[in-house]
Structures are given as structure tokens and as C-alpha cells.
Amino acid sequence: MSWTEALHDHGDALVETLAARLAGICRDAIAARGHALLALAGGRTPLPIYRRLAKENLDWHAVTVVPTDERWVAHDHSASNRRELAAAFADATGIRLGALVPAQPGDVPDTAQARLTLADCRGDFDAVLLGMGNDGHFASLFPGATNLGEALAFDNADDVCVIHPDPLPPEAPFARVSLTAARLLRSRTSWLAITGERKLSALRDAQTTRDPQRLPIAALLHAPQAHLHIHWSP
Ligand SMILES: O=C1O[C@H](COP(=O)(O)O)[C@@H](O)[C@H](O)[C@H]1O
């Protein structure tokens, strides 16, 4: 994969730029195919982008959003990415928001709900917006997960996987259901939104050392035949 970078002076510029890009992608997709399909990261970083995007005058009934990953928690749990997405898109009346976990998940994580959701979203995504942790994880593809190699494999036939981060991240210590790298790469455009010096340093490391087991984002950065638009702000 090749990449381009935009290093913004301020978080507001990152938010405005990415919200405008995503709005344009949705408009073009709706004009061309009648609908837009987005895969959107959870976590804290992209929420202002979503809140800004939700204010755009779009035919939201024609837009479907799938989380790139989800924690194995109920939809109303404070750690639920879907809950945060739903709140951020509150102004986008009519938007369809898919689920990767059941509303009330049982004890053992599985991909059944995610497969149902993705069965309705078979085409390429129009845009995938990813975040990244300080440890180089994207979606929920964490370094140290036993199935990380498979989850990152470009020829993986599975669209989704269960991930048990090891160690569990203290800010969200839950098993995860994540789209695989292979599914995330089936997108017309790919975007990465990160903030802060630690993430920039991890990104620089991944750009130069190409070690996806240590820094999973390296798998995307160096994937053939794809292009990642990277946006960073302090
Ligand atoms: O756990 C997660 O972390 C990453 C990064 O989150 P952030 O709060 O540092 O922006 C996120 O992209 C992913 O979707 C989420 O589940």
C-alpha cells in the first residue's frame, strides 16, 4: 500500500477535512450506486468527525455504517463502539447502523451477528475510516492476539474474527469482534485518523520497520495495490 499524509496544525482542521471528504464520498456513491457504505472506527479519536459529518445535508436513508470493530459488550454499554457511533450520528436521521455483536451478548464471543450484518453489505465499502492505538492496532487487530496473523492475511476468506487482546487494553478490557484486514481492504478509499505524538511515533515506526506482528498497522501501510490517506493532528 502506498500512503499520503496530511499533518494538520489543529484537531479542528483534521475534523473538518475528514468530514468533508466523507460527505463527498457519500454523495458520489449515492449518485453513482444509490447508496453509500462506510466502515467506521470506534474509539475516541473519530467521534468529532462523525458529529460534524452528521450535520451534512445528505440523504442519510441511503447511507449504511458498519463499525470496523466492536467490544463484546451490550449495545447500551459505555464501552460499546456502536453506542458511541449512534450518539455521534444522532443528527443523521435515517442512517442505518450495523452491529457486529448482539444487543445483549452472551458469555462467549462469536461472529454470528457480524456475519448477518455483513451479509447485507456485500459490496466494497465506499470508505473505511480507521483509528490506531499507541500500540499500532487498528480496528481490533491487536499485537499479541494469537490469531493476528490470520486476521491480517490479505487472502483471508473470513470477513470477521473474534480477537482476544493479550494483554487486554485497560481502557476497554473486553474481547472484540473485528473486521479482518482482507475485508477492510475491500474499499474504494481508505483513511486513517490519528492524533498525538505517541501515535505519530508508532506510525513512523510501522512505516519504516514493516513488522505487523509488533505494529499491526504496518500490514496496511505495506499492503500492495491499496492507498491509505493518513490524517494526523496534535
Ligand atoms: O479500541 C479501539 O481503539 C482504536 C483507537 O481508539 P482511540 O480511542 O485511540 O481513537 C479504535 O480505532 C478502535 O476502533 C477501537 O475499538
TrEMBL record:
EC number assigned by the record: 3.1.1.31
Broadest EC class assigned to this enzyme: hydrolase
The keyword Hydrolase belongs to this UniProt entry's keyword annotation: yes
Catalytic reactions of this protein: 6-phospho-D-glucono-1,5-lactone + H2O = 6-phospho-D-gluconate + H(+)
Keywords noted in UniProt: Hydrolase
Domain Glucosamine/galactosamine-6-phosphate isomerase, residue spans: 12-222
Pathway field: Carbohydrate degradation; pentose phosphate pathway; D-ribulose 5-phosphate from D-glucose 6-phosphate (oxidative stage): step 2/3
Any one biological process term the GO annotation gives: carbohydrate metabolic process
Segments traversing the membrane: none
Entry-linked Pfam families: Glucosamine_iso
Keyword Cytoplasm appears in the UniProt entry: no
GO molecular function: 6-phosphogluconolactonase activity
Classification via InterPro entries: 6-phosphogluconolactonase_DevB, 6PGL, Glc/Gal-6P_isomerase, NagB/RpiA_transferase-like
Protein family membership: Belongs to the glucosamine/galactosamine-6-phosphate isomerase family. 6-phosphogluconolactonase subfamily.
Function field: Hydrolysis of 6-phosphogluconolactone to 6-phosphogluconate.
Name by which UniProt lists this protein: 6-phosphogluconolactonase
Species of origin: Rehaibacterium terrae
Protein's gene: pgl
